[in-house]
From TrEMBL:
Gene3D superfamilies recorded: 3.40.50.1070, L-fucose Isomerase, Chain A, domain 2, L-fucose/L-arabinose isomerase, C-terminal
Pfam families xref list: Fucose_iso_C, Fucose_iso_N1, Fucose_iso_N2
Keyword Kinase recorded: no
Provenance organism: Petrotoga olearia DSM 13574
Record's protein name: Fucose isomerase
Keywords recorded for this protein, A-Z: Carbohydrate metabolism, Cytoplasm, Fucose metabolism, Isomerase, Manganese, Metal-binding
Residue ranges of domain L-fucose isomerase N-terminal-1 in the record: 3-158
Domain L-fucose isomerase C-terminal: residue ranges: 333-468
GO molecular function terms noted in the UniProt entry: arabinose isomerase activity; L-fucose isomerase activity; manganese ion binding
Protein's UniProt keywords contain Cytoplasm: yes
L-fucose isomerase N-terminal-2 domain: residues covered: 256-307
Domain of life, per lineage: Bacteria
GO CC terms in record: cytoplasm
Length: 471
Protein backbone atom coordinates (compact mmCIF):
# COMPACT_ATOMS: atom_id res chain seq x y z
CA UNK A 1 0.00 0.00 0.00
CA UNK A 2 1.06 3.58 -0.67
CA UNK A 3 2.63 5.40 2.27
CA UNK A 4 0.84 8.47 3.59
CA UNK A 5 2.70 11.62 2.59
CA UNK A 6 2.86 14.01 5.54
CA UNK A 7 4.33 17.50 5.57
CA UNK A 8 6.07 18.91 8.65
CA UNK A 9 6.70 22.60 9.25
CA UNK A 10 8.53 23.55 12.45
CA UNK A 11 8.01 27.08 13.74
CA UNK A 12 10.25 29.42 15.70
CA UNK A 13 10.44 32.79 17.43
CA UNK A 14 10.36 35.85 15.17
CA UNK A 15 13.23 37.54 17.00
CA UNK A 16 16.47 36.75 15.20
CA UNK A 17 18.57 36.31 18.33
CA UNK A 18 16.05 33.89 19.90
CA UNK A 19 15.67 31.99 16.66
CA UNK A 20 19.42 31.54 16.27
CA UNK A 21 19.88 30.44 19.87
CA UNK A 22 17.13 27.81 19.62
CA UNK A 23 17.71 26.70 16.03
CA UNK A 24 19.65 23.50 16.75
CA UNK A 25 17.25 22.60 19.53
CA UNK A 26 14.31 23.04 17.16
CA UNK A 27 15.98 20.85 14.55
CA UNK A 28 16.56 18.07 17.10
CA UNK A 29 12.91 18.12 18.12
CA UNK A 30 11.90 17.94 14.46
CA UNK A 31 14.33 15.06 13.89
CA UNK A 32 12.69 13.09 16.71
CA UNK A 33 9.23 13.60 15.24
CA UNK A 34 10.34 12.62 11.74
CA UNK A 35 12.13 9.51 12.98
CA UNK A 36 9.13 8.36 15.02
CA UNK A 37 6.75 8.74 12.08
CA UNK A 38 9.02 7.14 9.51
CA UNK A 39 9.77 4.18 11.78
CA UNK A 40 6.09 3.19 11.62
CA UNK A 41 6.50 2.26 7.95
CA UNK A 42 3.20 4.01 7.22
CA UNK A 43 4.42 7.55 6.65
CA UNK A 44 6.57 9.38 4.13
CA UNK A 45 7.67 12.68 5.66
CA UNK A 46 8.29 15.87 3.69
CA UNK A 47 10.11 18.52 5.74
CA UNK A 48 10.13 22.22 5.09
CA UNK A 49 13.60 23.37 4.05
CA UNK A 50 13.78 25.94 6.87
CA UNK A 51 12.69 26.29 10.46
CA UNK A 52 10.12 29.06 10.07
CA UNK A 53 10.77 32.35 11.88
CA UNK A 54 9.76 34.89 9.22
CA UNK A 55 6.66 35.44 7.07
CA UNK A 56 8.69 34.81 3.91
CA UNK A 57 9.79 31.43 5.29
CA UNK A 58 6.21 30.58 6.30
CA UNK A 59 5.00 31.19 2.75
CA UNK A 60 7.97 29.29 1.31
CA UNK A 61 7.38 26.29 3.58
CA UNK A 62 3.68 26.22 2.74
CA UNK A 63 4.42 26.30 -0.97
CA UNK A 64 6.96 23.48 -0.56
CA UNK A 65 4.25 21.34 1.01
CA UNK A 66 1.88 22.24 -1.82
CA UNK A 67 4.48 21.37 -4.45
CA UNK A 68 5.25 18.05 -2.74
CA UNK A 69 1.49 17.24 -2.75
CA UNK A 70 1.43 16.20 0.89
CA UNK A 71 -1.84 14.74 2.13
CA UNK A 72 -1.90 16.75 5.34
CA UNK A 73 0.44 19.04 7.28
CA UNK A 74 1.78 18.89 10.82
CA UNK A 75 2.63 22.25 12.39
CA UNK A 76 5.38 21.43 14.89
CA UNK A 77 6.10 23.51 18.03
CA UNK A 78 8.90 22.92 20.52
CA UNK A 79 9.39 26.55 21.64
CA UNK A 80 7.35 29.73 21.78
CA UNK A 81 6.49 30.62 18.17
CA UNK A 82 4.84 33.64 16.67
CA UNK A 83 1.31 32.48 15.78
CA UNK A 84 0.87 34.54 12.62
CA UNK A 85 3.55 32.36 10.97
CA UNK A 86 1.30 29.30 11.26
CA UNK A 87 -1.63 31.23 9.80
CA UNK A 88 0.48 32.34 6.85
CA UNK A 89 1.80 28.83 6.22
CA UNK A 90 -1.77 27.54 6.21
CA UNK A 91 -2.56 29.75 3.22
CA UNK A 92 -0.46 27.39 1.10
CA UNK A 93 0.24 24.13 2.95
CA UNK A 94 -2.40 21.47 2.24
CA UNK A 95 -4.75 20.58 5.09
CA UNK A 96 -6.05 18.97 7.16
CA UNK A 97 -3.74 20.30 9.87
CA UNK A 98 -2.41 18.85 13.08
CA UNK A 99 -0.76 21.16 15.60
CA UNK A 100 1.84 19.24 17.59
CA UNK A 101 3.41 20.49 20.80
CA UNK A 102 6.58 18.84 22.05
CA UNK A 103 7.57 18.72 25.72
CA UNK A 104 10.04 21.53 26.35
CA UNK A 105 9.04 23.44 29.51
CA UNK A 106 11.95 25.93 29.53
CA UNK A 107 11.16 26.99 25.95
CA UNK A 108 7.38 26.60 26.08
CA UNK A 109 6.23 24.42 23.19
CA UNK A 110 2.79 24.12 24.78
CA UNK A 111 2.38 27.88 24.72
CA UNK A 112 3.39 27.92 21.06
CA UNK A 113 0.92 25.16 20.25
CA UNK A 114 -2.02 26.83 21.99
CA UNK A 115 -1.34 30.26 20.58
CA UNK A 116 -1.06 28.94 17.02
CA UNK A 117 -4.08 26.62 17.29
CA UNK A 118 -6.17 29.47 18.68
CA UNK A 119 -5.09 31.76 15.85
CA UNK A 120 -5.99 29.15 13.23
CA UNK A 121 -9.39 28.58 14.79
CA UNK A 122 -10.13 32.29 14.65
CA UNK A 123 -9.53 31.98 10.90
CA UNK A 124 -12.07 29.15 10.67
CA UNK A 125 -9.40 26.41 10.55
CA UNK A 126 -9.82 23.78 13.25
CA UNK A 127 -6.65 21.68 13.56
CA UNK A 128 -6.28 18.54 15.60
CA UNK A 129 -4.11 19.10 18.68
CA UNK A 130 -1.59 16.57 20.01
CA UNK A 131 1.00 17.11 22.72
CA UNK A 132 3.77 14.88 24.08
CA UNK A 133 6.94 12.96 23.29
CA UNK A 134 6.93 11.46 19.76
CA UNK A 135 8.57 8.28 21.10
CA UNK A 136 5.63 7.70 23.44
CA UNK A 137 3.49 4.96 21.80
CA UNK A 138 0.27 6.62 22.99
CA UNK A 139 1.26 9.96 21.48
CA UNK A 140 2.46 8.33 18.26
CA UNK A 141 -0.83 6.44 17.92
CA UNK A 142 -2.76 9.71 18.29
CA UNK A 143 -0.68 11.17 15.48
CA UNK A 144 -1.20 8.12 13.26
CA UNK A 145 -4.95 8.00 13.80
CA UNK A 146 -5.34 11.55 12.57
CA UNK A 147 -2.88 11.02 9.71
CA UNK A 148 -4.86 7.97 8.51
CA UNK A 149 -8.12 9.90 8.55
CA UNK A 150 -6.61 12.95 6.88
CA UNK A 151 -5.01 10.90 4.12
CA UNK A 152 -8.33 9.11 3.53
CA UNK A 153 -10.11 12.43 3.08
CA UNK A 154 -7.35 13.60 0.76
CA UNK A 155 -7.32 10.45 -1.36
CA UNK A 156 -11.03 10.60 -2.08
CA UNK A 157 -10.51 13.86 -3.98
CA UNK A 158 -10.48 13.28 -7.71
CA UNK A 159 -11.49 9.63 -7.47
CA UNK A 160 -14.05 8.13 -9.84
CA UNK A 161 -16.80 5.71 -8.90
CA UNK A 162 -18.02 3.36 -11.61
CA UNK A 163 -21.72 2.57 -11.33
CA UNK A 164 -22.52 -0.55 -13.37
CA UNK A 165 -26.30 -0.42 -13.73
CA UNK A 166 -28.92 1.69 -11.96
CA UNK A 167 -30.78 1.56 -8.67
CA UNK A 168 -31.24 -2.06 -7.54
CA UNK A 169 -34.60 -3.46 -6.49
CA UNK A 170 -35.99 -0.13 -5.30
CA UNK A 171 -33.28 0.56 -2.69
CA UNK A 172 -33.23 4.26 -1.89
CA UNK A 173 -30.29 3.71 0.47
CA UNK A 174 -28.22 2.31 -2.38
CA UNK A 175 -28.53 5.42 -4.56
CA UNK A 176 -26.82 8.75 -3.96
CA UNK A 177 -26.53 12.14 -5.62
CA UNK A 178 -23.42 12.49 -7.77
CA UNK A 179 -23.46 16.26 -7.36
CA UNK A 180 -23.39 15.88 -3.58
CA UNK A 181 -20.49 13.45 -3.82
CA UNK A 182 -18.48 15.89 -5.89
CA UNK A 183 -19.29 18.80 -3.59
CA UNK A 184 -18.60 17.02 -0.31
CA UNK A 185 -15.92 14.47 -1.21
CA UNK A 186 -14.54 15.45 -4.63
CA UNK A 187 -15.68 12.18 -6.22
CA UNK A 188 -16.89 11.87 -9.81
CA UNK A 189 -19.54 9.27 -10.73
CA UNK A 190 -19.41 7.44 -14.06
CA UNK A 191 -22.44 5.45 -15.21
CA UNK A 192 -21.62 2.23 -17.11
CA UNK A 193 -24.19 -0.14 -18.55
CA UNK A 194 -23.92 -3.75 -17.33
CA UNK A 195 -24.06 -4.89 -20.96
CA UNK A 196 -20.54 -3.50 -21.35
CA UNK A 197 -19.41 -6.21 -18.93
CA UNK A 198 -21.08 -8.93 -21.00
CA UNK A 199 -19.56 -7.73 -24.27
CA UNK A 200 -16.06 -7.62 -22.82
CA UNK A 201 -16.46 -10.89 -20.93
CA UNK A 202 -17.31 -12.70 -24.17
CA UNK A 203 -14.05 -11.45 -25.68
CA UNK A 204 -11.76 -12.54 -22.85
CA UNK A 205 -9.50 -15.29 -24.26
CA UNK A 206 -10.79 -18.74 -23.34
CA UNK A 207 -7.33 -19.88 -22.27
CA UNK A 208 -7.09 -17.01 -19.79
CA UNK A 209 -10.45 -17.92 -18.24
CA UNK A 210 -9.53 -21.60 -18.14
CA UNK A 211 -6.22 -20.91 -16.41
CA UNK A 212 -8.01 -18.82 -13.77
CA UNK A 213 -10.63 -21.52 -13.26
CA UNK A 214 -7.97 -24.18 -12.76
CA UNK A 215 -6.15 -21.93 -10.26
CA UNK A 216 -9.39 -21.57 -8.33
CA UNK A 217 -10.11 -25.30 -8.47
CA UNK A 218 -6.64 -26.00 -7.09
CA UNK A 219 -6.85 -23.65 -4.09
CA UNK A 220 -10.57 -23.69 -3.22
CA UNK A 221 -13.29 -26.32 -3.20
CA UNK A 222 -15.54 -25.98 -6.26
CA UNK A 223 -18.86 -27.81 -5.99
CA UNK A 224 -20.08 -28.25 -9.56
CA UNK A 225 -23.69 -29.42 -9.74
CA UNK A 226 -24.09 -29.71 -13.53
CA UNK A 227 -26.85 -27.10 -13.49
CA UNK A 228 -26.30 -23.75 -11.82
CA UNK A 229 -22.55 -24.24 -11.50
CA UNK A 230 -20.53 -25.83 -14.28
CA UNK A 231 -16.98 -25.13 -15.50
CA UNK A 232 -18.50 -23.11 -18.35
CA UNK A 233 -20.59 -20.94 -16.00
CA UNK A 234 -17.62 -20.40 -13.66
CA UNK A 235 -15.55 -19.25 -16.62
CA UNK A 236 -18.34 -16.79 -17.53
CA UNK A 237 -18.06 -15.37 -14.02
CA UNK A 238 -14.28 -15.16 -14.36
CA UNK A 239 -14.76 -13.40 -17.69
CA UNK A 240 -16.90 -10.80 -15.91
CA UNK A 241 -14.04 -10.20 -13.48
CA UNK A 242 -11.53 -9.58 -16.27
CA UNK A 243 -14.08 -7.45 -18.11
CA UNK A 244 -14.53 -5.29 -15.02
CA UNK A 245 -10.76 -4.86 -14.73
CA UNK A 246 -10.53 -3.71 -18.34
CA UNK A 247 -13.34 -1.17 -17.94
CA UNK A 248 -11.89 0.08 -14.65
CA UNK A 249 -8.60 0.73 -16.42
CA UNK A 250 -10.16 2.29 -19.53
CA UNK A 251 -12.48 4.59 -17.58
CA UNK A 252 -9.88 5.32 -14.87
CA UNK A 253 -12.23 4.19 -12.11
CA UNK A 254 -11.08 3.91 -8.51
CA UNK A 255 -13.96 1.96 -6.97
CA UNK A 256 -17.13 0.43 -8.34
CA UNK A 257 -20.59 -0.99 -7.75
CA UNK A 258 -22.53 -3.62 -9.70
CA UNK A 259 -26.30 -3.77 -9.88
CA UNK A 260 -26.36 -7.48 -10.69
CA UNK A 261 -29.99 -8.20 -9.89
CA UNK A 262 -32.07 -8.96 -11.82
CA UNK A 263 -30.57 -8.47 -15.29
CA UNK A 264 -27.27 -10.28 -14.80
CA UNK A 265 -28.53 -12.86 -12.31
CA UNK A 266 -31.52 -13.75 -14.50
CA UNK A 267 -29.85 -13.78 -17.88
CA UNK A 268 -26.06 -14.19 -17.79
CA UNK A 269 -24.32 -15.12 -14.51
CA UNK A 270 -23.86 -13.75 -11.01
CA UNK A 271 -21.09 -11.27 -10.30
CA UNK A 272 -19.98 -12.92 -7.06
CA UNK A 273 -16.55 -13.95 -8.35
CA UNK A 274 -15.87 -10.48 -9.73
CA UNK A 275 -17.00 -8.72 -6.55
CA UNK A 276 -15.04 -10.98 -4.21
CA UNK A 277 -11.75 -10.89 -6.10
CA UNK A 278 -11.88 -7.18 -6.86
CA UNK A 279 -12.00 -6.62 -3.10
CA UNK A 280 -9.18 -9.11 -2.49
CA UNK A 281 -5.43 -8.31 -2.30
CA UNK A 282 -4.78 -10.90 -5.03
CA UNK A 283 -6.47 -12.54 -7.98
CA UNK A 284 -5.82 -15.38 -10.42
CA UNK A 285 -2.65 -13.65 -11.64
CA UNK A 286 -0.95 -12.66 -8.38
CA UNK A 287 -0.88 -9.89 -5.78
CA UNK A 288 -2.69 -6.62 -6.42
CA UNK A 289 -4.23 -3.69 -4.61
CA UNK A 290 -7.84 -4.30 -3.55
CA UNK A 291 -10.42 -2.44 -5.63
CA UNK A 292 -13.54 -1.67 -3.62
CA UNK A 293 -16.58 -3.25 -5.26
CA UNK A 294 -20.08 -3.01 -3.79
CA UNK A 295 -22.94 -5.17 -4.89
CA UNK A 296 -26.42 -3.80 -5.71
CA UNK A 297 -24.73 -0.57 -6.86
CA UNK A 298 -24.78 0.58 -3.26
CA UNK A 299 -23.14 3.97 -3.65
CA UNK A 300 -22.96 4.98 0.01
CA UNK A 301 -21.87 1.43 0.81
CA UNK A 302 -19.04 1.67 -1.72
CA UNK A 303 -18.08 5.08 -0.33
CA UNK A 304 -17.98 3.72 3.22
CA UNK A 305 -15.78 0.88 1.97
CA UNK A 306 -13.45 3.26 0.14
CA UNK A 307 -13.03 5.34 3.31
CA UNK A 308 -12.26 2.16 5.26
CA UNK A 309 -9.79 1.04 2.59
CA UNK A 310 -7.85 4.30 2.72
CA UNK A 311 -7.80 4.30 6.54
CA UNK A 312 -7.02 0.64 7.26
CA UNK A 313 -5.29 -0.27 3.96
CA UNK A 314 -6.88 -3.72 4.03
CA UNK A 315 -9.77 -5.39 2.18
CA UNK A 316 -13.21 -4.25 3.35
CA UNK A 317 -16.32 -6.28 4.10
CA UNK A 318 -19.66 -5.77 2.36
CA UNK A 319 -22.59 -7.66 3.87
CA UNK A 320 -26.31 -7.74 4.44
CA UNK A 321 -27.44 -7.38 8.02
CA UNK A 322 -29.15 -10.71 7.54
CA UNK A 323 -30.37 -12.21 10.81
CA UNK A 324 -30.01 -12.00 14.59
CA UNK A 325 -29.69 -15.28 16.49
CA UNK A 326 -31.08 -14.26 19.84
CA UNK A 327 -30.01 -17.30 21.83
CA UNK A 328 -26.40 -17.04 20.62
CA UNK A 329 -26.46 -13.22 20.63
CA UNK A 330 -24.93 -13.23 17.16
CA UNK A 331 -25.65 -11.06 14.15
CA UNK A 332 -25.29 -12.97 10.88
CA UNK A 333 -23.69 -10.79 8.20
CA UNK A 334 -24.12 -12.51 4.83
CA UNK A 335 -24.39 -11.47 1.21
CA UNK A 336 -24.40 -13.55 -2.00
CA UNK A 337 -20.68 -14.26 -2.25
CA UNK A 338 -19.76 -10.61 -1.90
CA UNK A 339 -17.26 -11.09 0.93
CA UNK A 340 -13.63 -10.91 -0.21
CA UNK A 341 -11.95 -14.28 0.29
CA UNK A 342 -9.48 -12.39 2.51
CA UNK A 343 -11.98 -12.71 5.33
CA UNK A 344 -11.84 -16.51 5.21
CA UNK A 345 -8.32 -16.50 6.69
CA UNK A 346 -7.36 -12.88 7.35
CA UNK A 347 -4.26 -13.35 5.20
CA UNK A 348 -2.75 -11.67 2.15
CA UNK A 349 -1.83 -15.13 0.83
CA UNK A 350 -4.54 -16.71 -1.33
CA UNK A 351 -3.63 -20.26 -0.34
CA UNK A 352 -4.27 -19.44 3.33
CA UNK A 353 -7.72 -18.04 2.63
CA UNK A 354 -8.97 -20.16 -0.25
CA UNK A 355 -8.45 -23.43 1.59
CA UNK A 356 -11.43 -22.25 3.66
CA UNK A 357 -13.53 -21.25 0.62
CA UNK A 358 -16.20 -23.24 -1.22
CA UNK A 359 -17.43 -22.07 -4.62
CA UNK A 360 -21.03 -23.16 -4.09
CA UNK A 361 -23.84 -23.29 -6.68
CA UNK A 362 -26.20 -20.32 -6.43
CA UNK A 363 -29.77 -20.84 -5.26
CA UNK A 364 -33.15 -20.16 -6.86
CA UNK A 365 -32.83 -16.39 -6.62
CA UNK A 366 -30.33 -16.49 -9.47
CA UNK A 367 -31.62 -18.61 -12.40
CA UNK A 368 -28.68 -17.71 -14.67
CA UNK A 369 -26.43 -19.59 -12.27
CA UNK A 370 -22.93 -19.11 -10.99
CA UNK A 371 -20.82 -19.84 -7.97
CA UNK A 372 -21.25 -18.12 -4.61
CA UNK A 373 -17.99 -17.54 -2.73
CA UNK A 374 -18.85 -19.35 0.50
CA UNK A 375 -16.76 -19.14 3.65
CA UNK A 376 -16.92 -18.09 7.29
CA UNK A 377 -15.12 -14.96 8.42
CA UNK A 378 -12.05 -15.50 10.58
CA UNK A 379 -12.41 -14.35 14.20
CA UNK A 380 -11.15 -10.99 15.44
CA UNK A 381 -12.09 -7.52 16.61
CA UNK A 382 -13.71 -5.48 13.85
CA UNK A 383 -14.98 -2.00 13.24
CA UNK A 384 -18.27 -1.87 11.33
CA UNK A 385 -19.65 1.34 9.89
CA UNK A 386 -22.07 2.85 7.39
CA UNK A 387 -22.23 6.29 5.82
CA UNK A 388 -25.86 7.19 5.11
CA UNK A 389 -28.03 10.23 4.51
CA UNK A 390 -30.67 11.57 6.86
CA UNK A 391 -32.77 14.27 5.25
CA UNK A 392 -29.98 14.81 2.73
CA UNK A 393 -27.15 15.14 5.28
CA UNK A 394 -24.52 12.47 5.77
CA UNK A 395 -24.20 10.69 9.11
CA UNK A 396 -21.74 7.90 9.86
CA UNK A 397 -22.86 5.10 12.17
CA UNK A 398 -19.96 3.23 13.77
CA UNK A 399 -20.42 -0.17 15.40
CA UNK A 400 -17.53 -1.88 17.23
CA UNK A 401 -17.90 -5.66 17.21
CA UNK A 402 -16.17 -9.03 17.25
CA UNK A 403 -16.27 -11.75 14.61
CA UNK A 404 -16.46 -15.01 16.53
CA UNK A 405 -15.27 -18.50 15.71
CA UNK A 406 -17.90 -21.25 15.79
CA UNK A 407 -17.59 -25.00 15.66
CA UNK A 408 -18.21 -26.72 12.35
CA UNK A 409 -21.47 -28.05 13.75
CA UNK A 410 -22.60 -24.55 14.78
CA UNK A 411 -21.64 -23.07 11.41
CA UNK A 412 -23.69 -25.71 9.62
CA UNK A 413 -26.67 -25.32 11.93
CA UNK A 414 -26.80 -21.54 11.74
CA UNK A 415 -26.00 -21.18 8.03
CA UNK A 416 -28.69 -23.72 7.10
CA UNK A 417 -31.25 -21.46 8.77
CA UNK A 418 -30.19 -18.50 6.64
CA UNK A 419 -28.36 -19.24 3.37
CA UNK A 420 -26.03 -22.20 3.37
CA UNK A 421 -24.33 -21.33 0.06
CA UNK A 422 -23.34 -17.77 1.02
CA UNK A 423 -20.43 -16.42 3.09
CA UNK A 424 -21.13 -15.54 6.72
CA UNK A 425 -19.53 -13.37 9.38
CA UNK A 426 -20.93 -14.01 12.84
CA UNK A 427 -20.67 -10.77 14.78
CA UNK A 428 -21.09 -10.10 18.47
CA UNK A 429 -21.84 -6.38 18.68
CA UNK A 430 -20.67 -4.17 21.54
CA UNK A 431 -24.16 -2.67 21.60
CA UNK A 432 -27.47 -4.44 22.15
CA UNK A 433 -29.78 -5.36 19.27
CA UNK A 434 -32.55 -2.97 20.29
CA UNK A 435 -30.14 -0.04 20.05
CA UNK A 436 -28.71 -1.35 16.80
CA UNK A 437 -32.10 -1.80 15.14
CA UNK A 438 -33.24 1.62 16.29
CA UNK A 439 -30.26 3.58 14.99
CA UNK A 440 -28.58 1.57 12.22
CA UNK A 441 -29.48 3.32 8.93
CA UNK A 442 -29.83 0.59 6.29
CA UNK A 443 -29.63 -3.09 5.35
CA UNK A 444 -25.93 -3.19 4.37
CA UNK A 445 -22.88 -2.97 6.61
CA UNK A 446 -19.14 -2.70 6.01
CA UNK A 447 -16.04 -3.20 8.08
CA UNK A 448 -12.43 -4.17 8.62
CA UNK A 449 -10.43 -6.05 11.22
CA UNK A 450 -9.06 -3.84 13.98
CA UNK A 451 -10.16 -0.81 15.96
CA UNK A 452 -10.54 2.21 13.69
CA UNK A 453 -13.20 4.11 15.63
CA UNK A 454 -10.98 7.13 16.30
CA UNK A 455 -9.89 7.31 12.66
CA UNK A 456 -13.51 7.32 11.49
CA UNK A 457 -14.39 10.02 14.02
CA UNK A 458 -11.44 12.12 12.82
CA UNK A 459 -12.60 11.62 9.22
CA UNK A 460 -16.10 12.79 10.10
CA UNK A 461 -14.80 15.88 11.86
CA UNK A 462 -12.52 16.71 8.93
CA UNK A 463 -15.45 16.42 6.50
CA UNK A 464 -18.01 18.08 8.77
CA UNK A 465 -20.11 14.91 8.99
CA UNK A 466 -22.15 13.93 12.04
CA UNK A 467 -21.46 10.52 13.54
CA UNK A 468 -22.86 8.13 16.11
CA UNK A 469 -21.10 5.25 17.86
CA UNK A 470 -23.23 2.30 18.90
CA UNK A 471 -21.29 0.72 21.75
Amino acid sequence: MQKRKVGIITFSDGRDFVHEETLEMNKKFEDRLVKALENTGEVEVVRASDIVNKPSKAKKAGKEMMKAEVEMTIFNYSIWCWPHLSVMASLYAPGPYLTYGQINPKYPGMVGLLAAAGALEQMGIFPERVWGEPEDPTVLEKLLKFIRAASAAHRLKGERYGMFGGRPMGMYTASANGDQWMKEFGIDVEQVDQYALVLKAENIPSQKKKKAREWLEKLATVKYDGNRLTPEILEKQIGLYYAALEIIKEEELDFVGFKGQPEMTNNYATLDIAEAFLNDPYDFDGSKEPIVAATETDMDGALTMEIFKHIAQTPVLFADVRHYFKEENLLDLANSGQHATYFAGKSNRPEENLKNVIIHPEDFYFPAGGGAVKHFAAPGRVTLARLARQDGNYVMTIVPAEFVELSEEEKKRLSEQVQIEWPHAYAKLDTDMDTFLEYYPCNHTHGVYGNYIDELVHFCKIKGIDYQILD
